[in-house]
Design a protein that fits this description.
The protein is α+β, with helices and mostly antiparallel strands. The chain has 2 domains: 192 residues, Alpha-Beta Plaits; 36 residues, no CATH class. Helices cover 17% and strands 35% of the residues. The protein contains 5 helices and 12 strands. Strands 1, 2, 5, 6, 7, 8, 9, 10, 11 and 12 form a 10-stranded mixed beta sheet that branches. A hairpin with a 2-residue loop joins strand 10 and strand 11. The radius of gyration is 20 Å and the shape is globular. The two termini are 28 Å apart. The mean pLDDT is 87.
Length: 255
């Protein structure tokens, strides 16, 4: 078992970690979800190998602890959103290779006005968070084939080097891609000096992740929704391991 943990301090102007029970209108949890926190670590360093079966990840990130460094504050936003879904990966590849002519998504106009059969756009309300700042602790969980100590040390070294230099292969974000997240690597000694935040709340059932983190290879992006009963105590959200019984997840292969 890899016992090395990494700590990031992350912040941004806006964030939205949508509660799924709110349906169409977005309403954010008061704190970042483990899934969104994992995404920030993934944006800095995630690795795997591709073959005929799909993508084989070398490891996944296990978020262990989330510290709230700024009290949650909400802001109401009204945004124009395109109703149509984006094209499939196969379609985008065909566009890139010149096999098909690219077709834009028209944001303005109805089906009749655009003449494309597309749905146009609609206005939606978002209850987002503003001026967020968190300290997130996570560790690398290697897949069985890559669990040798030398390999784990290599993964940890690469992540630490990239995070300290501010490198990422895509811009991290807070829930929605238009809400960028900024990060700084925190040394172990510095991570023990947490700002005291008086915030306690039983959040209830919170989204843990949208993928099966136990998977040995990735074939597609089929959702695998898992949940856990989240409680913030003293501004800290302790996140249970994905494998634990505290995390409710569907039977393997049913999602």
């Amino acid at each position: 078992m890899n016992k090395t943990t990494h700590t990031l301090e992350v912040w941004g102007d806006l964030a939205c970690f949508t509660r799924p029970e709110m349906k169409v209108e977005r309403f954010s949890y008061p704190v970042i979800t483990p899934s969104a926190a994992r995404g920030i670590f993934d944006a800095i360093y995630w690795d795997g190998i591709r073959d005929t079966k799909g993508m084989h990840p070398y490891f996944h990130w296990q978020v262990e602890r989330i510290e709230i460094l700024q009290l949650p504050r909400y802001i109401a936003l009204r945004r124009n959103e395109v109703k149509d879904k984006g094209p499939s990966i196969q379609t985008i590849k065909a566009w890139m290779e010149g096999g098909e002519q690219p077709e834009p998504l028209w944001a303005d106009g109805s089906k009749d006005e655009s003449g494309t059969g597309q749905k146009g756009r609609t206005q939606r309300q978002t209850k987002a968070l503003k001026n967020v700042r968190y300290r997130i602790v996570a560790r690398i969980i290697p897949k069985p084939k890559y669990s040798a100590l030398e390999q784990i040390n290599k993964f940890n070294g690469i992540f630490e080097r990239r995070a300290k230099q501010g490198k990422c292969f895509q811009q991290p974000f807070f829930g929605c891609s238009e809400f960028p997240a900024f990060f700084e690597y925190v040394q172990h000694a510095e991570s023990t000096s947490k700002r005291e935040i008086h915030f306690d709340q039983h959040v209830g059932w919170m989204l843990y992740d949208v993928f099966d983190l136990r998977r040995e290879f990735v074939i597609d992006d089929t959702p695998f929704i898992s949940l856990f009963d989240a409680t913030v105590k003293g501004g800290v959200l302790e996140v249970p391991p994905f494998e634990s019984a505290e995390v409710r997840k569907p039977e393997r292969g049913t999602a």
